[in-house]
Amino acid sequence: MAERIAGPEIERLIQLLARLPGLGPRSARRAALHLIRKREELLGPLAEAMRVAKDRIVTCSVCGNVDTADPCSICADARRDSSVLVVVETVGDLWALERAGVLNARYHVLGGALSPLDGIGPDDLNIAKLVGRVAEGGVKEVILAVNATVDGQTTAHYITELLGPCNVKCTRLAHGVPVGGELDYLDEGTLAAALRSRTDL
C-alpha cells in the first residue's frame, strides 16, 4: 500500500478532483498541484466561485435546465419561439445546442434516457412534465434531440407515442455523416443512417 505523500487536505482535494469526468488519479494530482501552485490567483477564486454556485444554482421548474434563477434565463426569454420545444437528455446537451446558435426555441431536459438494463424507467425521467407542457397547447413541434444510442432512440419512440394524442409534430435530429467527415473513417451504422436520411440537393 502506497504511503500518503501529502497532508489529508491535499489528499482530499486530489480524491475529489479524481471524481470529475475525464480526470483519473494522475490527472487529478497534476490539477491539484497546479491549483496549489496558483493558490492566490486560481485556487481561492475557484473555491469562492464553487461556494457561490452551490448556494445559488437551482433547477428550472419549467424545463429542467440549471441556472441561478427559476424559471431559467431561457424560459424567461420572451423572444424565444414557444411553438418549438427541443427535448434533450441532459443539460450538457442543451448547452451544446445553444453553443451551435441555430435554434431560438425552448427546451425540455429529460434528465437521462430510458434504460431498462440500468433500471431507468419513465418515472425516473422528466417525461410527465414534458407531456403536460405540450398538452397545455401552443407547442407545434417537438424536436427530439436525444443521443443516437439504443436508449436514446427508445426514449424518442416512447415520447412520440405519448405525444400522439396531442396532435403535435415530432421530429428528430438527422443522423449520418458529420460536417467535415470522411466516408472512409465512418462506421457502417453511421453510413447506413446517412443513406436512409439522404435529402435532395
Tell me what the structure shows:
It contains eight helices and six strands. With 201 residues, the chain is of the alpha/beta class. The strands form two sheets. A four-stranded parallel beta sheet has the order 4-3-5-6. It starts with 7 loop residues before the first helix and ends in a 5-residue tail after the last helix. The mean pLDDT is 91.
Low-confidence stretches: none
Oligomer: single chain
Q: Please trace the helix and strand order, writing H or E for each element.
A: HHHEEHEHEHEHEH
Major sheet: order of its strands? 4-3-5-6
Arithmetic mean of pLDDT: 91
Helix content: 40-55%
**Count of DSSP strands:** 6
What would the keywords be for this entry?
alpha/beta; 44% helix; four-stranded parallel β-sheet; 201 residues; two-stranded antiparallel ribbon
